[in-house]
Amino acid sequence: MTLMNCSAVQRRLQSFHDGELPVREMIDVEGHVGTCPPCARDLRQIRSLRDALRLAAAPAPAENWAGLQPGVISRMRAEHHESWSARAQRFIDDVHLVWIGLASATATCALAGSILGMVQNIPDRNDSLAAIFAVMGAKVGSDLNPAALDGRGLDLGPTPVLVPTVPQDGVVYATLETATIPDGVMVPLSAQVTTSGSVENVRMLDRTQSSTGVRDLMDALSRGRLEPAQYGGAPLAVNVVWLLANTTVKPGKT
Length: 254
Description:
This protein has helices at residues 6-18, 23-35, 37-56, 68-81, 84-120, 129-137, 171-178, 212-223, and strands at 186-193, 199-204, 229-231, 234-236, 238-245. It contains 8 helices and 5 strands. A hairpin with a 5-residue loop joins strand 1 and strand 2 (199-204). The chain is mainly alpha-helical.
């Protein structure tokens, strides 16, 4: 313990009251104040001033000060959320999502329309979806993907397609000669002629004209064989439409 005079203690009274002195000086000042009435009186005055300031100060809030900062931040966030700028930003974000949804829906519809358009160009089949896509991917003019007689989709430019012909020694020709189709009646038939000359998917386009001769002819076409279409010197599978009619040629006046 170090003996301090009153002057040294007076300089340290405020710090002693606030507990800011080192431990050794706190002990020295406390020992001096206990034996020095003037210094003890000055310390009592400092304590009285402290008590008066506490009584005059406004009361502290009831809630804990530790919760004040989160409450202020939450209120500021709520006010910002309801501001015009925040509302405008949310509107822009919502419209952005709407445009993305519309674009996605439009692209989906366009893709579905393209697929349906391609599928509609394929002859009626009862195959699976995989078989349909196999037909779509087949080469134009093959048995899986017959060509049109106008040559569209083929790779030799404007080279004409030679149409299938009926051999005179086959069952189809014989049936044509014996077919009984009423005069003035035209019966359209659609079919596919393969690269080997066989006839598939024979259908009557006008079912109102269903005579015995037409049915016999359709049966003969399904069983017979034609000379296949030619394109660039090679056989070609084609879709054809035949228009059957029985025309009586009358001699004219000479």
